[in-house]
Amino acid sequence: MDLKNFISIGALHLMFSLNGWKHPNIKEIQQVAVFKPDFYETGHVIAKTDKAIIQAKGYTVVNYKGKKYDDVHILLKEHGMSAINDFDNWAFEIEKEWVIFKGGEWQTSFTTLDKLPKKTKYRC
């Protein structure tokens, strides 16, 4: 399992908490928390503080088994949930990002769990 994008539900909640973010609003697939922003709708707020939010932004283009997809949910519908086990073979051409907004202003962006910043880094 790719721990930068998929992790146990409890571990993901703990990561947010340890970094000072509240109320994680996460998606789950087969009882595993999904962190990759491409699995969320643009505008989805995954976590927040009193001053800031972490929101999914952008769009997706992924190649899988010779076909391009602009929505991972369509890919999963066509190939089934077993495609998650083959995630290493998903070739992302364009990826959504998690964007931190503080007071409506962009602070930073990132795509994987290992890049989740502490809220204090941006005084959030």
How many strands, which pairing sense, and closed or not: the largest β-sheet?
A: 4 strands, antiparallel
Strand content is 25-35%
Average pLDDT figure: 94
Structural class: alpha+beta
Could you name the ranges where pLDDT drops below 50 across 5 or more consecutive residues?
none
Write the H/E string, N to C: EHEEEEEEHHEEE
- Give me the number of helical elements: 3
How many distinct folded domains? 1
Radius of gyration: 15 Å
Number of strands: 10
Strand order across the biggest sheet? 4-5-9-10
Gross morphology = globular
Residues in helix, %: 10-25%
The separation of the N and C termini measures: 31 Å
Description:
It contains 3 helices and 10 strands; from the N terminus they run βαββββββααβββ. The chain is α+β, with helices and mostly antiparallel strands. It has one domain. A hairpin with a 2-residue loop joins strand 2 and strand 3.
Features:
124 residues; alpha+beta; 4-stranded antiparallel sheet; 3-stranded antiparallel sheet; 18% helix; globular
Describe the secondary-structure layout.
Elements: E1 6-7, H1 9-18, E2 27-29, E3 32-34, E4 45-48, E5 52-57, E6 61-64, E7 67-69, H2 72-79, H3 82-85, E8 91-94, E9 97-102, E10 105-110
Antiparallel strand pairs: 1-3, 2-3, 4-5, 5-9, 6-7, 6-8, 9-10
